[in-house]
Amino acid sequence: MPEGHTIHRLAADHRTRFLARRVTVRSPQGKFSDSAALLDRQVLDDAEAHGKHLFLGFGPLGWIHIHLGLFGKVDFGDAPAPPPSDTVRLRLADEDSYVDLRGPTTCALIADGEKAAIHDRLGPDPLRPGDDPERAWSRIARSRTTIAALLMDQKIIAGVGNVYRAEVLFRHGIDPYRAGRELTRTQWDTIWADLVELMREGVRNNRIDTVRPEHTPEAMGRPPRIDDHGGEVYVYRRANLPCHICATEIRTAGLAARNLFWCPRCQRG
Question: Domain limits of the chain?
Answer without folding.
Answer: 4-121, 133-262
